[in-house]
Write a structure and sequence with these properties.
It comes from Marinobacter confluentis. Pfam families: Arabinose_bd, HTH_18. It is globular, with a radius of gyration of 22 Å. The chain has 17 helices and seven strands. With 350 residues, the protein is α+β, with helices and mostly antiparallel strands. The protein folds into two domains: 219 residues, H-NOX domain (Alpha-Beta Complex); 105 residues, Homeodomain-like (Arc Repressor Mutant, subunit A, Orthogonal Bundle). It is 54% helix and 9% strand.
């Protein structure tokens, strides 16, 4: 993972992005023959960082990846085309939940509530009028406020999802507003959003016909919705607790600083925070994690990077990461990736 010196100026470090969403961007790049390795490098990431699909990354990494992909694509409407390519599965559990909702009003409620699980640099709220549903978007970082492509990607992905779910693929929004300045060519924007597009506005918003939200959704499944909502609520609770929590961030930083030197013990980290081991474990449990889980995550990240890049042998990695033997390291590596270290190294180098 990128070091702190490569962070994007102005980005709030507690804002995060799901790895699934980043991988969907890289998949889009692959489909468009955009060099994914260059995109990763620009983001301060390596292919090894992608192995842990469940982890979250600083949103600044995704922003850099997006901007690099836009630059490398040479596509003046990159944001639109990226937005059109987003599928419900790219949003993880939140996207799957959207497909099980009973109607589009509920969909938007869930979208606003759970979007942080996907990509935390936006806030959104919904206003209902007699004829329309207006979604207003609040960017949380300066980079989004100045990037037309990022604004277009967000609104277009939302519009694509709603259109698909309510069967309105050939119908247009009532109005679309961007903070960004009008580009020289708006024909492609009009194809996606219709002709009522406003530029240099004080807000990013999209107004959709009220009639769309009166249509039943054929794929509604109350049982699946209940299950996915419970899962999303639990993930949101964990994320809200850990993102920006001073103790959580301090413990993670302590582990990262010492992981390559046998790693810290629970007692050492507890002492550094003037807590008993039991108190530290209890506080981490309240944040939805544990000390052993945090250590395992950092061990995994280091191991995948070192082995994937051929930087050291399994014996060296096992020693530095505090495993009792190379065999114990090999077992952990197979648990993380489903592959032996040698197989993983060969695939990464091939």
């Amino acid at each position: 993972m990128a070091n702190s010196h490569s962070r994007m100026p102005g980005a709030e470090e507690h804002l995060t992005c799901s790895m699934v969403f980043l991988k969907s961007l890289l998949s889009y790049c692959q489909d468009r023959q955009i060099n994914g390795n260059q995109v990763l490098t620009a983001a301060g990431l390596t292919p090894a960082d992608l192995e842990n699909t469940a982890q979250r990354i600083p949103a600044s990494h995704y922003i850099r990846a997006f901007m690099a992909a836009e630059r490398l694509s040479g596509d003046p409407a990159f944001g639109l085309h990226r937005g059109e390519a987003v599928k419900p599965g790219h949003y993880g559990a939140a996207g799957l939940l959207a497909t099980a909702t009973s109607d589009a009003r509920e969909l938007l409620t869930f979208y606003c509530r759970y979007q942080t699980l996907v990509y935390a640099v936006y806030g959104a709220d919904v206003e209902q009028t007699a004829t329309s549903i207006i979604i207003r978007v609040q960017p949380k970082v300066e980079a989004v406020k100045t990037s037309l492509a990022m604004q277009e990607a967000y609104l277009c992905s939302l519009l694509t999802l709603v259109r698909w779910l309510v069967g309105a693929q050939h119908e247009n929004p009532l109005a679309t507003c961007f903070i960004a300045t009008r580009p020289p060519d708006i024909a492609e924007r009009q194809r996606v959003f219709g002709h009522n597009i406003k530029w240099d506005q004080p807000e990013i918003s999209i107004s959709l016909p009220q009639a769309w939200f009166d249509r039943p959704m054929d794929q509604a499944n109350p049982d699946v919705r209940e299950m996915l909502q419970a899962h999303a609520d639990e993930e949101l609770k964990k994320l809200s607790a850990s993102d920006g929590d001073p103790l959580y961030l301090s413990v993670v930083n302590h582990i990262e600083a010492t992981i390559a030197f046998d790693g810290p013990t629970l007692q050492e980290v507890a002492n550094a925070h003037r807590l008993s081991s039991r108190a530290l474990q209890r506080k981490l449990s309240e944040l939805g994690t544990s000390f052993s889980e945090l250590v395992d995550q950092r061990r995994q990240a280091c191991a995948l990077r070192w082995i994937g890049k051929g930087q050291m042998s399994t014996t060296e990695a096992a020693y530095l990461l505090g495993f009792s033997s190379p065999q114990a390291f090999n077992r952990a590596f197979k648990r993380w990736t489903g592959r032996a270290p040698s197989e993983y190294r060969n695939q990464a180098s091939g």
